[in-house]
Amino acid sequence: MPAIAPLLPKRQALAWLAAACTAVAGSGPASAGETDGAYPERTVTLVVPFTPGTSADIIARVIGPRLAERWKVAVVTENRPGAGGNIGAELVARAAPDGYTLLMTATAFGTTPVINRHTPFDPIKSFRPIGLAATSAMALVAPGKLPAQSVQDLIQLARAQPGKLNYASPGTGTAQHLAMELLKQSAQLDMVHIPYKGTAGALTDIMGGHAQAMVTSLGAATPFLQSGQLKALAVMSKNRVPELPGTSTVVEQGHPELVVDTWYGLLAPANTPDAIIGKWNKDLNALLRDPDVIASLKNQGLVATGGTPQELGALIQSELARWAKVVAAAKIAAD
């Protein structure tokens, strides 16, 4: 069994948050007027720290060729999966800050560092944010036969049977795991976590009644929701989603503290010049307004987002702070 990493020390968590405030405040505007006309002159690599076919990979492969067409240089996607995204992130953190090696990451970037103190980079100091590329919704699901139709119904079932209800996740420390822990802590529930090695096994056991709840992506759950093997108790976003128009959100159900979206963002190594950050932000946002890009991402259950470097920096800061509290309260450690 792999060694279990100790919990993130409180002093280190506070140091990260202080550094985040400084980094976000000092990142400066992404001014389109300050771009370096010579950039880019050669191949640009988008490092995806996950396997091919994942959402971050899809986003990189949607925007890469379009940027290549604009810039007249190759923009390639390189998958460097492993260690919850740490392998690819470390590669970019150690890359030259010249705009030719960038990171297309996801929600795990805001969760892995607060679970494993041995993360080989600092999520704030080692990077400069460029922009939020996309988001995707998740849902709280349950077996089709479970006598619950809402978050409150599940809470009542769990309170009536403390320690008897199980919830599944695709692995310890994943966003889905932490979202369920957030529900447990918010409602003061006693439920048992059953981690799986991936989403497929977790959903199979949910449908078989071996676990009673799970937070999962809509893309993974939709076929089973349509067949009735699963039911959606709530969408974990602020707004309803087209895929489940009849399912209310956690906000509508009176639980705004449970809003959890999956996000995907683009980062550069620390010390990357403002001009390069500005050019990337300008062109990324332009692509994310393109109808073809919007449609391509929508077909994968993704919402093209965009925004400023400061907004992505603030999101990462808030994610680290939020999940550090959840992890500490639940005493979660890496597998």
UniProtKB/TrEMBL annotation:
UniProt xrefs under InterPro entries: BUG (IPR005064), Bug_dom1 (IPR042100)
Matches recorded under Pfam families: TctC
Keywords carried by this UniProt record: Signal
Gene3D superfamilies with a match to the protein in the record: Bordetella uptake gene, domain 1 (3.40.190.150), Periplasmic binding protein-like II (3.40.190.10)
Keyword Signal assigned: yes
Signal peptide: 1-32
Keyword Signal part of the UniProt annotation: yes
Domain of life where this protein originates: Bacteria
Assigned protein family: Belongs to the UPF0065 (bug) family.
Name of the protein in question: Tripartite tricarboxylate transporter substrate binding protein
Protein source organism: Pigmentiphaga daeguensis
